[in-house]
Amino acid sequence: MTSVPTWRAHPVRAELLRGSAPWAGAAVLVVLAVPLILTAHEWQGGWAQTQALLRSVLTQLAAPLAVAAGCWQGQREHRRGTRELLRSAPRTRLARTLTAALPTAIWTSGAALAASAGALLACWPYTSAGGPVFSAVFADAGTVGALSLFGHVAGAVLRWRLTAPVLALCTPFAELLPVMSLWPIPDRPLSPAPATPMLQTSIPVWWQPLATIVWVGGLGAAAILLYAARRRVYGLLPLAAALVAATVLVQGSEHAWRPDPLALRLACDDTVRPEICVSGAHPGMLPEVRKALSGLTARLEGVENTHVRLVDIHQRMMQAHVTTQGGTHIPERDPDVLTMRSVALVGQDVIRGRLTDPEQFAWDTAQSLTGEAIWCEARRKDMEVHRIDRAVTEFLAPNPAGAAGQDWSGLGSPSARDGGEPGDREALAAVLDRLRAMGDEERRRWLSEYFASARGCESTRVPAL
Amino acid sequence: MTGTGARVMGLTVTHRRAIALDSVDLDFGTGVHGLLGPNGAGKTSLIRVLATVAAPAGGRVELLGQDMTAHRERSRVRRRLGYLPQEFGFYPGFTVREFVAYVAWLKEMPACSVADAVERAVERVGLMDRIDAKVKTLSGGMVRRVGIAQAIVNEPDLLLLDEPTTGLDPEQRVDFRALLREVGTACAVIVSTHLAEDVAAACEQVTLMESGRVAFRGTTAELRELGEATPHDAPDGTVSPIERGYTAALRLHRASSWDPGTAPDTGSGSGSKAGR
């Protein structure tokens, strides 16, 4: 007789290596990998975006697959005709069920963890601050495993061959049940379905993932025990734990998430004027933004009356969210602070730690600087003043959509949009030429005077050009 | 566990309102017992009750000296039971070693003894060279041998085999009968089969069943004698004495069932012999 280690003879090893469990794990890995790879540019570089997407694909794609895999495994005894043999054995149904069901749960949740780890690793090189919320990753993977246990019990009870695909199709809707309009709690604390906005702006407090695991895992354990335990009353224990966790989640829903402290901070460069401040969650973007705005800040050197600081709008919104306790109103304006486009919008303005269009970013920032004047109705009606506002914007950062005087559509030119004078383009180009033709000192003085007027609507205060 | 074999008293089994076993009294001691009978005779119903997978509608079942009504005793007996169902289900992705080990685990064998017990069982059925092959790669006969290996992995005190030779080729059948004889020296083996030659070659005792009742009980030699004593119209050599005995016993049982005056003492306990 050859000596085989005891652990090799244990059926859990065979169940883990054979049958449908490894295939289920591979399938989960594939269905997670495909959307993650296809949308990599939308999340690489942002922990929040990565985790929000992970939650979305885990609950919408991996969970239904795990339910179907569990169901398929649960139907195995019936499909393979082994019930007769199993029923003649003394090993309890609970032990048999756990041995058959846990490998699928382990493989599917393991695949979910592996995909999550891969995504977080792929995200990491492009991030500069913070880190993932690991407890949320484990809670989501645990949810996938727990749902496979539900599937197993359903498969063991329902012998219909199409039970697995039907359950897979129903799972996303079942996950959304707690968030439908009849559900009285708006923050969907009991639903594993995506809470993308929540994950993008907030992080869970320590007990939230723990309570979620107990809630979903408790239900899964209760299903297994109520189905397989000799004393089914034991199933009430995990059920009670799940209900307690659910109560904690519902009662504490207002305090289960907190704003990401990093996103509330600012990472500033005060070596330039105006100072440039990006979200504290993306301090690594500061050199990129400074480079994009280098032309603008160079042209504003020595100019007075400009804003002191350009601040990432995402940070300002987050700050507003905190100060208004959940509201989204912009807080009272700081006259020295001007908001600019956010570098936290990974996948839009920023892809893998790079601005997608630095020229557009600079032009948008220039628009913000002159924006109050441009959108002021009184100044818009005065074509000459409005032309000056637009010329200053173009001077600070050229419109990437076209050369000056050739394409002003991006500026929202009233002449083009509102049917203004046909000669407006030429007039605007002439104003811009005059501004460019000024000596440096003269232009600084003029711009200082202009920015003194740019915060108001009085067109009479705009210096002539 | 002190008792041996199996004993049923007044056993009645119903299947979809039809009576599969009609108040049968039987006992099986150490040795190989053949369970013969035509399709629908109640052989599988009896085996399933003895395997504790089907509950009787009436009567009493004692296995290895234990009454089967209590859960604790039932579990104790199941540890000492070997069972090959008529429809042997298996997990095709498992290797032979893994599947037999799985059944050993089901039978709550001590973990430290499983590995050796598995190899011993697989060796006894002649599959040692395929022990690490997946079951799905095996031929039908080999799968049947896997079924036998799983049934004997715990060296049972009561071995129940339902149509075990189905799918085996003649050589494998010969080997299997030798295995049965070897196992039967130490425990009670009950073999349900429709092949009289299996019984002739491997069994010491034979129970012939028909329509849920016992048509004949006795030794294999007695059944053979009955066959030899019965006139037949088949050419010599085409029908074996044991097959003639099988046919004769069935005919006698049927005749007695129709004529209450000559009814044999069937279904009333061990030792009954058709027509006597």
Automatic annotation (TrEMBL), chain A:
Leader sequence residues: none
Region (Disordered): 399-423
Keywords: Membrane, Transmembrane, Transmembrane helix
Bilayer-crossing regions: 21-40, 52-73, 94-127, 133-154, 166-185, 205-226, 233-252
Domain of life: Bacteria
Protein name in UniProt: Uncharacterized protein
